[in-house]
Amino acid sequence: MDGFTYGHEFAGIAADGRGYAVEPTIYCGQCDQCREGHVQRCTAGEHGHLGVFQDGGMTDAVLVPDYTLVPLPEGLDARDACLVEPASVAWHGVRRAALCPGERLAVVGGGSVGLLAAAAARRMGHAVDIETRHPHQREAAERLEAGHPHGTYDVVIDAAGSKSGVAKCAELARTGGRVVLLGVYPETVPIPSVVSLVKELTFVHSIAYGRHDGIRETEEAAAMLAHNPDIAKSVITHRFPLRDASEAFRAAGDRASGAIKVVLHP
After folding, report:
1. Contact 74, 223 (CB under 8 A)
2. Residue 233 above 80 pLDDT?
3. What is the pTM of this model?
4. Residue in 260, 248, 210, 263 with CA at minimum distance from that of residue 33
5. How many whole angstroms separate alpha carbon 197 and alpha carbon 72?
6. Which stretches of the chain are DSSP H helices?
7. What is the pLDDT of residues 199-227, one digit of tens each?
8. What band does 2 get if pLDDT is binned at 50, 70 and 90?
9. Which residues fall within 8 angstroms of residue 59, CB to CB, at 6 or more apart?
10. Which burial class, exposed, middle or buried, applies to 40 when counting CB atoms under 10 A from its CB (0-12, 13-18, 19+)?
């Protein structure tokens, strides 16, 4: 798509020297969904996301609504804070899983969101295994204390966004289990009907992030990243100056080369 500046995962330093991540959701704050804390479900016409069909953060400087600012906690560098947005997506997905004590959890997909979902699960006190495709993803998963899938699971989170990923989720889920759809699918969700029907699986949708009990999930994600600097070290594999954006996109598109999260800096 042309006509707007990309970048919905961004952070920076304000004129006063303070660091902020940006929660890119644009919402009204007045509709029923917003009042309940589900700003990602805002029903107003102005609802949208910075960097998705409207200007975002892939620029030297950007002006955003003040309510989108997420103050960076001590210990989280602005250079790593682009992870706050995808970490919030992952955090929301783990919360949507509604895990009970003792339930087994697996994640399918070793990209940034899958790894951040594993990190979020660990932060919330759950053991987690993750299905990865590439050796460098497995190495990152191990650094984040995520194991290799074995057996079946009460909850499986799909962070792959592919037909094969959803099929793997259905395979790993126990009979009567839950699958959280955290991936983004090109058209329709490719649910494997026979396995899903026989196992009577429950599919749970998860999109973006919101608030619960008055707490912003973006702030919880930022706190997680600040608490464990190894998350950023494990997930961010490449850094480029903004002028080399085309090379950054090339690297990001070649997962087999070792890329997980590719970051641009002004």
Report:
1. no
2. yes
3. 0.95
4. 210
5. 45
6. 32-35, 84-96, 112-123, 135-143, 163-172, 193-199, 217-227, 230-235, 245-252
7. 999 999 999 999 999 999 999 999 999 99
8. low
9. 5, 7, 242, 266
10. buried
